[in-house]
Write a structure and sequence with these properties.
By secondary structure, this protein is α/β, with parallel strands linked by helices. It is about 50% helix and about 15% strand. The two termini are about 35 Å apart.
């Protein structure tokens, strides 16, 4: 598991009524982050529901506010619960959809994510002024990458590690600069697999995000 620096801030925001909106590039780890949050809440006995607009059988529940509320009341009742909605950029008029849900003052906390920050800001940002907290998840920073590579042994003393272990630090820097910080790429051990995953992400961005935006 690659620990993300953004995670504690998201956990702290779970107690706030505003929508937690996670944005960032495709494959940066947004879905994984949400699943960690859900697992932590499930362990505490909280009611949770995870919906993904890329999943065919989830889409009918997100066609309208009324359809979603019916699903929430079925799964969570009318008491406090945590609702995760992934890939919100797939929803037509997503900003108005979320604004209406928030303004109904439902007993549910919404944690929402989506890829393509330009697209999301265009669709959602203005509609949710005062109703959301924005969390931007980038690909792994070099700090996150180095901590993962060293099994978090030097988490609070990376500068000292870099100074003493110059060769290892240089090797990590070269890998990071060559392959970047996409979590799936970092987790691959073989170079040819890293290249394959980078190519897959590149094609996905071109074919889905950039084509859709244009």
């Amino acid at each position: 598991m690659i620990k993300r620096n953004l995670y504690p801030s998201l956990v702290n925001h779970l107690s706030k009524p505003e929508i937690s909106l996670i944005i960032g590039p495709r494959q940066s780890g947004k879905t994984t982050l949400m699943l960690w949050l859900k697992a932590e809440l499930d362990q505490k006995g909280e009611g949770t529901l995870f919906l993904n607009l890329d999943v065919e059988w989830d889409r009918p529940h997100l066609e309208s506010q009324a359809a979603l509320i019916r699903k929430l009341e079925l799964e969570l009742g009318k008491k406090r619960g945590f609702v995760f909605i992934d890939e919100i950029q797939r929803k037509e008029d997503a900003g108005r959809f979320l604004k209406g849900l928030y303004d109904l003052r439902l007993p549910y906390k919404f944690i929402v994510s989506g890829s393509g920050s330009l697209e999301l800001k265009e669709k959602i940002h203005e509609s949710l002024v005062g109703r959301k907290q924005l969390f931007e998840l980038t690909t792994l920073t070099f700090e996150e990458f180095a901590n993962h590579r060293t099994d978090y042994k030097y988490r609070n003393k990376l500068p000292a590690f870099f100074e003493i272990e110059k060769d290892r630090a240089h090797q990590m820097l070269m890998e990071y600069m060559n392959f970047g910080g996409y979590p799936r790429v970092v987790l691959e051990e073989k170079q040819d697999e890293k290249v394959r995953v980078v190519d897959e992400i590149y094609r996905s961005v071109l074919e889905r995000d950039i084509t859709y935006l244009l």
